[in-house]
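task queued by scheduler; priority normal; single chain, no ligands, no partner chains; default sampling; output format set to structure tokens
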Amino acid sequence: MKWLTVVVLWLATGYRLRVSFGRGHTIWRTYLAVGIGGLALTTSLYFLRAQLDDLLGVPNLTGLLNRVLLTVACVAVQLYILSLDPTPRDTRARAKGRVLAGAAIIAICAASWVLAPIHDQVLLDYAPRSGHPAVLVYTVAYYAYLMWLLIDLGTFVLRHAGRLAESDRPGAVCAGMIGVGCLAGVGVLGLFTANVLLATGTGTGPAGFDELANALFPIPMALVAGGLLAVGVIPAVAEWKAAQRQVRILRPLWQRVVTLAPQVRLHGNRRTLNARRDATLAAHRVVIEVADGLHLIRVDPSTRAELSDLAVALQHPQDDGIPASQLLTPQQTHDQDLAQLLDLARRYADLVTDKPKEPAK
């Protein structure tokens, strides 16, 4: 499970980098990309720390590097949160405070690492050396910093998920996964902290504490990684499915419109309409062509301004008639215009095919 978590984190990092470079550079996208990339890198280093220490020839140096890099990622995430604050009062001072706190914890970790008696062998558990004050500072101070960050991030994300629950359910699910993962991480860090603190007198932590913490560690990481990756995947899949459905509903009406008014067809539409990867673009083009075509196609002036009557009239156009678009009800928003076109398309499809139709939502 731990390596699957690492793979998902790197996939999420790749997605964030693609978004950062593909949608225009912004400072908040940079913060988020640095934060996720740092999380992916430090998680990889954590799982490989023993092997990397052997390779570097300096026991427990990977642990120090891991703390430094993860602190940088943490500061980037905190700056990202501050950049989204709708009430930017004292934002600069708060951002400076986050940076100074990160710099302080890096300095504390570096100094305590130098002073701690942990340079003779690779240690996966610092509890046996926790009787030394430097080891205690090296571990507990850093765990406390991470728990503060995770509580701050987890509560922020869960509040955001609550606001998204009605308007964007996939987004709310992704945010919920990240928030729960952060708070679950607080519990795992609590186990690591307790293992070190309870070993200060005896040199040995409570039986099973370190093993339990290491066994649980991938769970919050998997939740956070899954949520981060799903942020890009779920909305994209939902948008793709909605676009595919929209094209499917409009296709019979679109075929009729471009037959009667072929000049409305946009360049490259045939390829785009049949390309699954370009479903969103195809849906936009189909809507534009149908709307433009209804302005050009003329129907019987006596046709009632009802969608079902307009659907029938489109089967019998008249050169001296009125524009079909005049029989549509003027709407206030683009979404309402689209809903009306989809309704017309369903009624037209009812006339020309016996296949079951998409239910109206």
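post-processing summary
- Residues 249 and 345 are 6 Å apart (CA to CA).
- Confidence is low (pLDDT under 50) at residues 269-276.
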